Structures are given as C-alpha cells and as structure tokens.
Amino acid sequence: MPIKDLESSIETPLEVTISMRGGALSGRVADAARKPAVGARVVLVPEAARRSRGDLYRNTTADDSGAYELRGIPPGDYKLFAWERIEDGAWQDPEFIKLYEDRGVRVRIAEDGRQSANVTLIPAWN
Predict the structure, then answer these.
(1) Number of domains in the chain
(2) Residue 36 gets which letter from DSSP?
(3) Which residues contact 61 (CB under 8 A, 6 or more apart)?
(4) Contact of 29 with 82, CB cutoff 8 Å
(5) CATH no. for residue 50?
(6) pTM for this structure?
(7) Is residue 8, in this structure, part of any structural domain at all?
(8) Residue 80, domain member (yes or no)
(9) Cα radius of gyration rounded to whole Å, the chain
(10) Which of 7, 45, 49, 61 has the smallest CB count inside 10 Å?
C-alpha cells in the first residue's frame, strides 16, 4: 500500500510520545467526613481530547485504608475520580463524565513518573 502525504490547514503542533515506561499514581480516597472510603472505585480518565481512546483509562478499588495505586499509565493529562458505587465502564461515557467533571482531580502523568493524588469520594445517589 503506498504511503500518502497528509495535509492539514491546522497549524497546531502534534506531540507523539511512544514509550514502554508508563507512570504510576497512588493516593487515598476519603469521604466527606475525611474517613477512608473502603472499596471505592478509583478511575483515571484521560483529558477530554483523548477520551475516545479506551486504552488510556485506568481503574482500581481502594483498599481497607482507602489507599489505591495505578501503574503503567501512559504519559499525559488526566482527571482522577472515586465513586462509592458505579456501573463498570460508565466512566467511558462522555455524557456521564460531564455530570462529575468538576469533582475530578487534575493529574499529569510523566514518563516513568510517580505521582500522588488524594481524591474525595463521590457518594452513591440512590
């Protein structure tokens, strides 16, 4: 298959990072009373421009002390959320995330970087 030249009228630079050295993120989840949110679903959602990329999402469950850890995260900007109860995969629905966008904690993951971020639990609404 022949290679074609790509043309664009947009003059925005394109940044591409290819690496096997993902970053890591750890921290704690607490409820509104600052008590550990045991069993909370912790979700890392890519920035809005990259939300169509399912491979960039990460999730885990907080342990008995409210602690969590995510590894192998591709470099980039993300938002961190923690829900008391959420349907699996709901965080990949753009309309759902819009409802909670202001509750997320901004996080920047660097290649081989280790970040720490605490997040407040989003309680179940029913």
Answers:
(1) 1
(2) B
(3) 39, 40, 41, 42, 68
(4) yes
(5) 2.60.40.10
(6) 0.82
(7) no
(8) yes
(9) 17
(10) 7
